[in-house]
UniProtKB/TrEMBL annotation, chain A:
Residues 416-440 have a biased composition (Pro residues). This is FAD-dependent oxidoreductase. Gene3D superfamilies: 3.30.390.30, FAD/NAD(P)-binding domain. The keyword Oxidoreductase applies. SUPFAM superfamilies: FAD/NAD(P)-binding domain (SSF51905), FAD/NAD-linked reductases, dimerisation (C-terminal) domain (SSF55424). It comes from Streptomyces broussonetiae. Keywords: FAD, Flavoprotein, Oxidoreductase. Residues 19-322 form the FAD/NAD(P)-binding domain. One of its GO terms (cellular component) is cytoplasm. Residues 416-467 are annotated as: Disordered.
UniProtKB/TrEMBL annotation, chain B:
Coiled coil: none annotated. The lineage of its organism: Bacteria, Bacillati, Actinomycetota, Actinomycetes, Kitasatosporales. Gene3D superfamilies: Cytochrome P450. Keywords: Heme, Iron, Metal-binding, Monooxygenase, Oxidoreductase. It comes from Streptomyces broussonetiae. The keyword Heme applies. This is Cytochrome P450. PANTHER family: CYTOCHROME P450 YJIB-RELATED, P450, PUTATIVE (EUROFUNG)-RELATED. Belongs to the cytochrome P450 family. InterPro entries: Cyt_P450, Cyt_P450_B, Cyt_P450_CS, Cyt_P450_sf. GO terms for molecular function: heme binding; iron ion binding; monooxygenase activity; oxidoreductase activity, acting on paired donors, with incorporation or reduction of molecular oxygen.
Length: 467, 420
């Protein structure tokens, strides 16, 4: 018997009777389960989720659900195929014993696995003061329950909503409030909305958009405290400049926290920025050695990205969850050389104030920006981000059909500024600083060796391998 | 005699029924310069890249040398373009294109303003299809074009736009006359095509006159349908000028049924040529949705498009398309590109990842796609369900003359009967 035959036998046997556990019953978990079955895995499959619900879709929560168009319980994700899994819903995983190959659950049970997929995602960062966070009317928005509760209160309607933090979620909530004709104040620590994701130049446009729609937008300010009435309902916020805002609904949109605490002590490279893994979703241990049996996908995964100087990227994007899960699941039931990389060009979309915002690439990787198409005044435009003379990202406002073009340029390490369009060129096409805030929080992103994409050389090409 | 390029051969009338072998030859040179200076792009990857490239214009007015004019050699005839002085949404670039399309969109496809606009047409479409099939009862031979594929889309588009159905014979004639003179191939220079051109020019003018009068009537007296709404209602970005609106009205009347007729006819033809697929669709009617996508890929309604040109030098697939060059995008070829589709010449109703170019891509993605999909799904689904033992009488059937909207003029089918 040759080695090859042995390996093939191993794969076959594992597919027939292996035990796979997926921790995380959301988009990534579900798509991974479906892919495993698709790939012929007939062994036992357990899916663990801390929420009592079957996997649901999150993008509608901050949009259609809040507006009251779609009930929160109508966001269940469609099943692409039967997964025939043992669903353990409503119970959180609280520990991982890699030596015994067991996941420990909150109810005390130990679930054994041969291969494990970590898809625990992120959770909303709560308002830091627990007493204030416990006031009625103070919300975060991440889960189905969050959206359902907030929707109910918006339907009342409140006299004013205070949104803390003007990232995508905060801005979307503010937009919904204006659509429902609810007065809304947005307080943002940075210089403008969306500044972390898209930089100050685009942030200024987003700020104007909010003000045009009647949002009381206050930038460069923080909220120092929330005050409630005798009944324990929030009524007022005190801002860092000493002013106050009366509001009876407060939405804290302060970003997300990766659900990695349960992995403490497991010896995996898990931390603030997520669980480190290779481009095939195989988890790294704390020494950077790749594991054979543990895989990561979705918001909680962070993997080196060939287009971005092999920096570890964590992406809280819908298609990252889907495609990362598919790649990881494929690799869970295959062996080298049949591993598949998950090399996604990041992309996301947001709908707010009647504008469809889409982006491709990693805007904060860029330090310059140039408007390439359309009109900023009319808010139909495309802009490209550059870093050392190459295009690294693009953003569009109501111009999404052009993303494909910019995506291709980014994949080919195209020049920055990109070639001028033949028409619909904005009057000023000079690159300018993109104005991303200095990252103040020390990050866990390691500096890595540059292995391509020198500014003088644009030959590298990004070609994800498709099925 | 100079040897013809694969593209010229693909355009010959004799090859109308099966241009695919020539496309295969053509794809060996993804971006091929033709003797007349036109660049023909035949591979999926390159076509998609150009569809999304803002250096490519769709506005014939920006092309210094119109495709195939006398200066460049072989003349190609295009009376439709000549007769229209104002641009419509497929012959202009942003920002005009974007603004006009945005103005028209809420009156047609709907979302987010009117998300049910198309889906609410389904009962009507079903009734029409049922009526057409009922009319076949007692017959043993039908023409799937005249008796089935043609009447449905024309009735539906008239209703959607608000064009009186009694005018249908008039514009049917104009469209036929114009299309019969449309030729991009080596035969364009023939006496016959040249003699058709004058008539075609007149037909398009009459058609334009008809649209203008209709719009005038609606300006006086608002009526049902999209055209009346566009004449009378201000959108957020104002109102379209009369000329632009007339030009777009022509486009919509024309494109709203012409392409769908061919798609239904080709779908019937293709399924009759593939009895296994037809039987599968009969047993599993839910396959109609992916099935129609596959039929769109297999026999693209629009085989190529011809009004594009390069506004800058464009490097692609090892070739530079020079600034000013006309570009033909061969959708019919891209949809059979083996680099993109596994076994592209196989009909697979369950094909996965079927992102065909049957409706194009990018900003000029077919405006009417949602309506076309619904019509064809209902029509083909019901044909398969109700027509008993259909057999093709003549294969290949006679084809219409023009290459862009390629389709059979008749598809005779022998049948045993019509189920209820």
């Amino acid at each position: 018997m040759t080695w090859r035959a042995t390996v093939e036998e191993l794969v076959r046997e594992f597919r027939a009777s292996g035990r796979i556990v997926i921790v995380g019953a959301s988009l990534a978990g579900l798509r991974a389960a479906e892919t495993l079955r698709e790939e012929g895995f007939t062994g036992s499959l357990t899916i663990i989720g801390d929420e009592p619900y079957e996997p649901y879709d999150r993008p509608p929560l901050s949009k259609q659900v809040l507006k009251g168009w779609v009930p929160a319980d109508h966001t269940k994700l469609p099943r692409m195929r039967e997964v025939d899994a043992d669903w353990r819903l409503g119970v959180a995983a609280i520990g991982l014993d890699r030596a015994a190959k067991q996941v420990r659950l909150a109810d005390g049970e130990q679930v054994p696995y041969d291969r494990l997929l970590i898809a625990t995602g992120t959770r909303a960062r709560q308002w830091p003061n627990p007493d204030e966070a416990a006031l009625d009317g103070v919300h975060t928005i991440r889960s189905r329950d969050d959206a359902e509760q907030l929707q109910k209160e918006l339907a009342e309607p409140p006299s004013r909503v205070l949104v803390i933090g003007a990232g995508f979620i905060g801005s979307e909530v503010a937009s919904v409030c204006r659509e429902l004709d609810i007065p809304v104040t947005v307080v943002e620590r940075g210089s403008a909305p969306l500044v972390g994701a898209l930089g100050g130049v685009i942030g200024e446009i987003a700020a104007q958009m909010q003000r045009d729609h009647g949002v009381d937008l206050r930038c460069g300010l923080g909220v120092s405290s929330l005050e409630g009435d005798a009944a324990g309902h929030v009524r007022r916020a005190r801002l860092s400049d000493g002013s106050t805002v009366d509001a009876d609904v407060v939405v804290a949109s302060l970003g997300s926290i990766r659900n990695v605490e349960w992995l403490e002590g497991s010896g995996l490279a898990a931390g603030f920025w997520g669980v480190g893994c290779d481009a095939g979703g195989r988890a790294f241990d704390i020494n950077g050695v790749v594991t054979d049996s543990i895989f990561v996908a979705g918001d909680v995964a962070r993997a080196p990205h060939v287009l971005y100087e092999y920096q570890f990227l964590a992406m809280e994007h819908w298609d990252n969850a889907v495609l990362g899960a598919e790649a990881a699941a494929h690799n869970m039931v295959n062996l080298e050389p049949n591993y598949r990389p998950h090399l996604l060009l990041p992309g996301f979309w947001s709908g707010q104030f009647g504008v469809n915002i889409k982006s491709v690439g990693v805007p904060p990787f860029g330090d310059e920006i140039v408007f390439t198409q359309g009109s900023v005044e009319e808010r139909h435009f495309a802009a490209a981000y550059g870093h050392r003379g190459r295009i690294v990202a693009a953003v569009t406002f109501d111009h999404g059909k052009w993303l494909e073009y910019y995506g291709k340029l980014i994949e080919q390490s195209g020049p920055f500024p990109p070639p001028p369009p033949g028409w619909d060129q904005p009057p000023d096409v000079k690159p300018m600083p993109a104005e991303f805030p200095d990252p103040r929080v020390p990050t866990a992103i390691p500096d890595v060796v540059l292995t391509g994409h020198a500014p003088s050389e644009r030959t590298a090409e990004f070609r994800p391998r498709h099925r | 005699m100079v040897e013809e390029t694969p593209w010229q051969q693909a355009l010959r009338y004799a090859n109308r029924a099966n241009p695919y072998p020539f496309y295969e030859e053509l794809r060996k040179t993804p971006v091929a310069r033709q003797p007349d200076g036109t660049y023909v792009v035949s591979t999926y990857r390159e076509i998609v890249a150009l569809l999304h490239d803002p250096r490519v214009s769709s506005d014939p007015r920006k092309c210094p040398v119109a495709a195939g004019t006398e200066d460049l050699g072989e003349p190609a005839a295009e009376p439709i373009r000549e007769a229209l002085t104002e641009p419509n949404i497929i012959t202009c670039d942003p920002p005009e294109h974007d603004r006009d399309r945005r103005t028209m969109m809420p009156h047609f496809v709907g979302p987010p303003q009117a998300p049910h606009l198309i889906s609410d047409l389904e009962p009507d479409i079903r009734r029409l299809v049922d009526g057409l099939l009922d009319d076949m009862k007692g017959k043993t031979r039908i023409d799937a074009v005249d008796d089935f594929a043609y009447p449905l889309p024309v009735t539906v588009i008239c209703k959607v736009l608000g064009v009186p159905l009694e005018d249908e014979p008039r514009f049917h004639h104009w469209i036929e006359t114009a299309l019969d003179a449309l030729d991009f191939g080596p035969e364009a220079a023939s006496e016959e095509i040249r003699s058709r051109q004058a008539g075609a020019r007149q037909a398009v003018q009459d058609f334009g006159q008809f649209a203008a009068e209709l719009l005038d009537r609606y300006a006086d007296q608002p009526g049902p349908g999209m055209l009346s709404a566009l004449v009378n209602e201000d959108g957020p970005e104002g109102r379209m000028s009369k000329g632009v609106l007339a030009s777009n009205a022509l486009l919509l009347i024309f494109a709203g049924h012409e392409t769908t007729v061919n798609l239904i006819a080709h779908s019937v033809l293709t399924l009759l040529r593939h009895p296994d697929a037809l039987e599968k669709l009969r047993r599993r009617p839910e396959l109609i949705v992916p099935g129609v996508e596959e039929l769109l890929r297999f026999e693209s309604s629009v085989q190529f498009w011809h009004t594009r040109s390069a506004l800058e030098d464009i490097d692609i697939a090892g070739t530079t398309i020079p600034k000013g060059a006309p570009i033909f995008l061969a959708y019919g070829s891209a949809n059979r590109d083996p680099e993109r589709f596994t076994d592209p010449d196989e009909l697979d109703l369950e094909r996965r990842d079927n992102q065909h170019l049957g409706f194009s891509q990018g900003i000029h993605f077919c405006f009417g796609a949602p309506l076309a999909r619904l019509e064809v799904q209902v029509a083909v689904g019901e044909f398969v369900r109700r027509v008993q033992n259909p057999r093709l009488v003549e294969d290949p059937p006679p084809y219409r003359h023009n290459q862009i909207f390629r389709g059979p003029r008749h598809v005779l089918v022998d049948i045993d009967g019509i189920r209820d």
